[in-house]
Amino acid sequence: FLPHLVASLERVDQTYIMVKPDGVQRGLVGEIISRFEKKGFKLTGLKLFQCTKELAEEHYKDLKGKSFFPGLIEYITSGPVVCMAWEGVGVVASARKLIGVTNPLEAEPGTIRGDLAIQKGRNVIHGSDSPESGKREVALWFKEGELVEWEPALVPWLIE
Ligand code: UDP
Ligand code: MG
C-alpha cells in the first residue's frame, strides 16, 4: 500500500481551525477537537493562545471595512482561543462541512455551528476557506517549531 500512500500524501492540504473565545468559555474545546479527531484528520499543531488585536486584524484583513469588523476583532481578542493545524487530503473543504455555514441558525444539525451556536457573532469556530488560506493562516498563527510532523498509527485504517 506504500506507493499509493505516498501519492496521496502529496495531495495533502492543511487547514487552520480555531475554537473562538466563546467556544473556550463554554467548555466546547474537547467536543470540537473530538469531531476532527474522529473524522481521521491529522493534528499537527495545537495551542491555547491569547490573540492580539494586530494578529486578529491580519487574520481577518479581507473583512476590513465590513460593519461587523470592529465587533469581530473585539470578539476574537476577548479571551483565549484554541489554535489548531490539521492535515489531510481534502481537509479544507471537509472541515468547512464539519463546521457548517457562517450563520449558526442556518447551519445544518450535525455540524459544529448547527449543533452548538446561535449567532454569527458567536459562532464558536473558524476554519480556513481554501487550501491557500489554510497555508497562510497556519503560517500566521504558528511558529515553525510549534508544528509537529508525525505519522499517525491509524493511517492504514483510514487511507486505502
Ligand atoms: N461575521 C459576523 N457577522 C457577519 C459575517 C461574519 O460577525 O455578518 C463573523 C463571524 O464570526 C464569521 C467571521 O466574521 O465566522 C468571518 O466571516 P466569514 O464570512 O469569513 O465566515 P466564516 O468563514 O467564518 O464562515
Ligand atoms: Mg472565512
TrEMBL record:
Keywords: ATP-binding, Kinase, Nucleotide-binding, Transferase. The active site is at residue 126. The keyword ATP-binding applies. ATP binds at residues 20, 68, 96, 102, 113, 123. GO terms for molecular function: ATP binding; nucleoside diphosphate kinase activity. GO terms for biological process: CTP biosynthetic process; GTP biosynthetic process; response to hydrogen peroxide; UTP biosynthetic process. Its EC number is 2.7.4.6. It is an enzyme of class 2 (transferase). It catalyses: a 2'-deoxyribonucleoside 5'-diphosphate + ATP = a 2'-deoxyribonucleoside 5'-triphosphate + ADP; a ribonucleoside 5'-diphosphate + ATP = a ribonucleoside 5'-triphosphate + ADP. The keyword Nucleotide-binding applies. Its cofactor is Mg(2+). Residues 12-149 form the Nucleoside diphosphate kinase-like domain. Belongs to the NDK family. This is Nucleoside diphosphate kinase. It comes from Cucumis melo. The gene is LOC103484201.
